[in-house]
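Teaching assistant's notes for section 4

Start the section by putting this record on the projector. Ask students to predict, before seeing the second block, whether Lipoprotein will look compact or extended. Collect guesses on the board.
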Amino acid sequence: MRMDVLRVKGKRKLTASPVGVLAALLLLTGCSGVGGGRPGEGKDEVRGAEAPAVVRVFSADQLKHVALESREVPGFVLERASEGTAGHGLPSTGRLDCRPLVLALGPRQEPAPVASLVRTFSKSSREHGFQGLLGTVRVSTYADDGARVTLRELRRAVSDCAGGFAMRTGEGQPQWFEAVAALPAPRLGAEALAYRMVNAAEGAPSLVTVVRSGSTLSMFFATHLSDPGAVEIPPALVAAQVAKVERLLRAERPPTAAPADGDPAEGGEGAEEGDGEVQE
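Reveal the predicted structure now:
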């Protein structure tokens, strides 16, 4: 994978394709998030009353039905990716309380989901082409209480690690995040979390937004390659993805097979492919 970045008047200019640089990008600049949230103090929204009484745990084939296509979010290019997009090997940190934030930047999660799918997104227009905004959407479905646990641990880590933390990427490269801050979370799903992290070396903020719908997490990462101040997680993208997840959750007879054009390379993280239901 090759990434060519030119320095132009103190800013970075991308000369490679957006997907081609994403693997290196996520672990070089970190991740933070803002959705289409309301003004506030960045507190998490928990809306348990809105969650369905029965939570489906999707198989890898079923999860492919929630993958976003570009036509569903005008102005954005969405492409298939793999868990390896976030790098190879597990990132690490000497601070146990910050470990959930570090794991969120890597290719594997704890607890491991039953199935995951990943899409990259970039902002583009006919007039200007690629505009520098780049990120990923990762949708994961969990058995038992995995989705709740993952979000709870992330929320705690955002608070505990506000002053920053050191880490190493899966490739062993040292990184330092000088700040972690909660942001207003979108009013979507059963509960949601949004935060930003600032990479000390680059001075660049990155965003993460996580929305839980039953036993499924929709996680969004974004950064901006040329203008750190323009980084955002587009509300339309978040809303579109969560809506697809929740339509599948509400389906009376959810499909059991992958879509006709499903990508066989996508799938879970080594768990079974069966469909189950757990009471919430």
